[in-house]
Design goal:
This protein is mainly α and 308 residues long. Helix content is 73%, strand content 1%. Strands 1-2 form a two-stranded antiparallel sheet. Helix 3 runs antiparallel to helix 5.
Length: 308
Amino acid sequence: MDSGFLGLYGRYRGIVDDALVRMLPEIPGDALRGAMRYALLGGGKRVRGVAFLAVAMGGVGGGVAADAAEGGEGPAGVAVRFACAAEMAHAYSLIHDDLPCMDDDDMRRGKPSCHVAYGEAMALLAGDALQSKAYECMIGALAPSIGLGLDGEACAAVLGAAIGEAGMVGGQAREMAGVGGGLDATLAMYAMKTGALLEACVTAPAALMKVDGAGREALKAYGRAFGLLYQLRDDLMDVVGDTGRMGKKVGRDERKGKVTVPTILGVEGTEKRIKDLLGDAMDALARAGGLGTGFLPDLAEYAAYRDA
């Protein structure tokens, strides 16, 4: 990838990481807080937070404003609160996804899953608490957003819908029930389970910045393609990836008898579908009127061809 993209990605990621540490300080002897921090701060690509900032920062002048890094309450600081909320929601979903009653995975990001390290009950509670903390972050951003002329309420509504029944949780429920119906049903489940929050991290900052019309619709189309290609790459890595690189066991979908896109289309067919979705994402950005076009194309390409 281009060094400029990687540098900016690292800058956005660092802002999110630093903010998450500030928002969730250590409480010595508190097992719940320990489990929350273990899951939230123990690595991760921060793709959702990075995507949010890429759109939101572009809306406030194209650079990373100083108040973002300092935890301020300017436009960038408000955006960081929402970006962190998305990361907290994602972390909670991973804790629950790894539980024995769900996917039953004992490794995440190269270390024992939260329930292995802290026990099932504490892991369940840590996930619950991170979900609650995500909404706390969003609520805390509402008042400063109003004072700055931003639409924090619309932003929170987009993120909230993506997290719940109509998005991430609903998609997980479909997967647990067995989607059936072949490729179309599987892709529809992916669009909820993985795609909804990724899409929201592109469209919610547009709502925050009061971007309307064709630009917002183009970003929505980009986010939809981005979310699907991200999950399809995950599917492929489970087939041909490396456990050491990924930080989790590969081949788990086959062992569990899951129907995934590679089991339907094969490796080559899945790679072609990823390429097609990447083209859809690029076409959408061409209609976005310059919103995020300095970063989002490379972000989609990174997601499409990553190996971890």
